[in-house]
């Protein structure tokens, strides 16, 4: 257990090697005062309850400490046969709650000569192994011989598995495993028959599509448990979220008692909101830059878009990206003896950050005079092998490492001990994640330091200039939508495979109408047989469970292999890769940094029964950055409405999103300059059927705005696309900017991560819509790739298709933008945007209009987006504001534009994602 | 012709049609079809051309439309009207109408564009070209149509009731003898798949449809369709264990194209092939010989369970479906005194308890020390018996647990023996080993469907026939057991696993990462899980 009962209250600043103030004072670089805010978060003392008051003597005796008040409250509710959700801070001893309940059940069963088992699910396999050790240690301390075993994809097959099924008291797994093992539930008859407790640890992670699947897997599990006569109690543990009760009940379909009055002690915290300094104009005055030209020596792809237009003197100043600044702060803190955890948004950045932290010390060697001081820094992410990750966890816990740069893989409860400090590379997108991550720093009541280094992004800039957004408002809700029929239907097939679906399932698994609907669908598809009265069986291809994709990735994962003839010591021991990641980051020729070693991808086998990526170690001065482009085809409207009599039509529906990771660039590791550009990856598109919403701008508004902004031009675009000056560029830049802004502010209005959204602005909405059958047939037979696979193979072919469709229209197409759910099948985000469109548009308008970047094409804080597939070009803030004004009915009435002139000019079929 | 009576239509996936000529000849000799359809909807002229070199009866590839968009072929009892694509469906009206007027010959349509589309967001499955099919039926003055399509797997057989005027779906029923034709002013379109069945090996599956007239049948057109599906790599050299596509290609380059030629090839020559080795070569020879002679062969020194003691009791169960709610029949054949016992629930299908109670009473009371033997029991019989005993007669759970159980199928596929027969189905294997069963005309699915009807409507089964079916399986199992017991051991037999392709176990994931649950016994679809 990670329980600390030392409430020694010498909570003063001396407890940490570096305070927030000291960080600001000692950091070797000039900064504006306004760029840093220091917030002092107070701590709180522990509230405890004597364990004897809650626990029976044979448990309270061996337990050598008191219980925190929330642990006691949860155990009391469990004694009253309630389901419990414990929603308290990181390291507040949540594991102890269910561990003690398992112990109570075990002792009760033992007295009666029976068995009592518990099924404990963690979100990751790493956490499972970690908690297996924790639980074993605790049961040892309590003198109980409770057999705890992890049973997941890494568990050795054959006898070891058989033994666990036959003997274990506590089985630890994850929901992907539960999903799979339900197929063979008869093998688990003993374990299921005796199951008294189901534990869902880190339950807040089950949100969105992942949460929907988990909710249905739980319903399937409950069905099978009921078949074996079990009706277990639930314990859920959750990080602090806005709606622990609603969320828990939605997951398990039962009432839940929430325990969220945190009784664990918490030290005070220095929270530093750190906006990186400007990097142009004046060049870091007063700093002791060595060997640099004033610009940062290492650039990153995240800045490529922002600096695309070149840094001339006329350009407005631009901040250093967090991808550069955060590793430097991390480097600085570790140098000053603060054991620090740096959170990065990607695996690549976790690896790169270690390099950059070292580079920072070397470049500033006048300041960091002892080069060998505290250099034990390691990257950590799920791409590393289990052995490597466990080693890093162990070294961190034992103080052998000064710092670790990690993805959110360390956000969850793996016990690595408490840090002195955390640094966040950018705002993690949600307050819930933000608090969970900074909770990694702070031991008991000692002071802790947490630094949030802001990124260019809309949200980051908003957060650092509005700290109250973090401090005063509630954390987000976790959303689980069990009404989603697409997800439901998949689990109906599995349920029918596990046990025949019959009348007993009506009302329990789903209401009659919905159940009948799903069964009729599968019956017509030839996948189930039989009726509810006598039971419906699954008759489709074997193991429908394998078609459940819990991680929003499709298909089989790719094994990473070392090229033949390469010394085994170079084996990267990479975990398997999702198909999407292979297409984006592991195409042939890609250069990836992994655990400090560069690798080049020399082969990718997509078609083998076990797809694979072959890599060999390399040593080059560049890394690769894939260029991705997106388009939409075959959108079909299901609902539509006009916005406030403005002539703007809004649609909701479904369509196909095509993602082309078609080319890549080689980018210098140092200096960040592109070396070779647009090298083909030869990858076909990734195709996704999803939900979308789109806005069609009325013709008169379009004509007016095209006229108004016809002088605007983006030379790069024109030369690249081989186009003549296009009068529409300013206007389409406005659409593009408005689309980015809508996506950027969506998380402020709706519960979602904007990375789950995608967008596309286009002058020819109609070309992206599904055509009626006849015209589709025509274009298909005319298209170069007619045949089985309808998707155009390359983005060029996709453009040709769009052009062809535009040309075949009888009427003038409408312009506008799409926003879609970035997940196969869709999650309902587009639908929520469709419903809340006006409120979002209002926020987006303010956001774009109020930004003081003073640039026509905006800045990363307003309309530039690091996820942009088109290098943030073209963008036009003014035109975006005008579009929003018209759509909100707030613009001045339209003057008569030279409409005829616009109509004469055939619009180019441009689209930007 | 291997399956049933009537006209036999062989559906070849294009990938299969491009296999070697000797392999196609093997397919031809096995199925002996009246007509061959190289299925669409993709245009694969090369595949069709290759098939035409081998097969004498007409070879049709619908997407070619080489004899016009609508072609008609007489296939003995039925005529087959092939429609090039969905857009020209209505052009078939004239031919269909003419067939209708002509005395008697029923016709079936083949159109590979007809398929189902599942829309999970709307909980809806629709039939593509439903309006065209309804219009076609109206124009040809027919109340029912039978459409075969390569776009659906050969296991697909549903009757869509469509509104005459619009093609709107009024309901879908399973086809065949169970079909209940309800709406009257509707067109009944029976849609039957021709395509590969999911879960077979990567080589795809081949299906043969025996279409016959059955006046008593309530199904549309009064047609009975019997399907036989085999994994494509049960043919030619690849039928031999250890011979995959690459090795087959290499052998063919050395002019070794049939199994008998393989047998004549010296082992030394086979050893030299890449990835074969001496054990592999011996195994190839052994299996080729088994297939050619029909004589089983043991590969290991592993004793057949029960070989040295009293022989096991041969067990088979019947359920109401693949996810059973009841095990309504347990049959046990005792080879010691050649006796057979059946435990059958004939009165109360709502209570699974009594049959199990009676079975357990008898088994534990009279044969407390005997082992059980099944064919694929670990995936079916033992699996469900275990769960049901646990749930309904829990007082016998631990006794049931401790009874020695043996699965002959698993023992064979674990590499202990090679058996003749195109598939591992008990029926195929026992027939190949000379077992002469009683012709009950039933299979697992049919007997389950009959019991389901009994559960739903109380309509009694022909109990004797259904009990005879179960008994037959138990006796067939013993026949196979004996033949394996007497089989000679292959010379130089080592151990090692022989897995025949055709397992549907490719895509299992578990844990946060992908891996396959190889511990589970292979899940062979062709095995017919009942």
UniProtKB/TrEMBL annotation, chain A:
Superkingdom as given in the UniProt entry: Archaea
Record region (Disordered): 258-321, 354-390, 772-793
Keywords: ATP-binding, Helicase, Hydrolase, Nucleotide-binding
Lipoprotein in keyword set: no
Domain Helicase ATP-binding per the UniProt entry, residue ranges: 75-259
Compositionally biased intervals (Low complexity): 300-311
InterPro entries: DEAD/DEAH_box_helicase_dom, Helicase_ATP-bd, Helicase_C-like, MZB, P-loop_NTPase
Molecular-function annotations in GO: helicase activity
Helicase C-terminal domain: residues covered: 328-483
Segments traversing the membrane: none
Pfam families in UniProt: DEAD, Helicase_C, MZB
PANTHER family on file: ATP-DEPENDENT HELICASE HRQ1 (PTHR47957)
Name of the protein in question: DEAD/DEAH box helicase
Automatic annotation (TrEMBL), chain B:
Gene3D superfamilies: 5' to 3' exonuclease, C-terminal subdomain
Compositional bias ranges of the Low complexity kind: 489-502
InterPro entries found in the cross-reference section: RNaseH-like_sf (IPR012337), YprB_RNase_H-like_dom (IPR038720)
UniProt domain YprB ribonuclease H-like: residue ranges: 313-484
Chain segments carrying region Disordered: 488-530
Protein's name in the database: Ribonuclease H-like domain-containing protein
Organism, as annotated: Natronoglomus mannanivorans
Organism lineage: Archaea, Methanobacteriati, Methanobacteriota, Stenosarchaea group, Halobacteria
